[in-house]
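It is worth pausing here to work through a concrete case rather than discussing structure prediction in the abstract. The textbook approach is simple: state the sequence, then state the predicted structure, then interpret. We follow exactly that order.
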Amino acid sequence: MTHHRIRKFNTKDTYPEQNLDNDLCQAVVTRGGRTVWMRGQCPQNLDDAKNIDSHDPTEQTHKVMQNIRQLIEEAGGNMTHLVKVVVYITDVRHREVVYRTMGEYIKNVHPVSTGLVVQALARPDWLVEIDATAVIPDEE
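Step two, the predicted structure:
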């Protein structure tokens, strides 16, 4: 079973004025499988909850996406099982670098995505947090 992704698109087409390259879609249909609900992932280590030593939105996004990938793999899946992300950023000026970095991890995956600019996250050093959901098919 594969997920049915409805109305795939790339952000370089829908936001031509921005330097983005994300494979997304309007909806994902899943059937059966195991749903992996992840808490919002932040730029910190999964093992000890220590922040990474960076205030760079690109580096923070890499860590967040690595955490998401690790959690999906620990659940027995891979990034192709990612179906939804909600991206929280604290500064709209970081949007392009956050989304371009995230795009490296979701190339050809096409999850649905929502993006929000928020006043702050749980720790003042955090610039990005991503809430993710994956569905691992039963046969995998």
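Step three, interpretation. The beta strands are 4-10, 23-29, 34-37, 82-89, 112-117, 128-136. The chain has one domain: 4-136.
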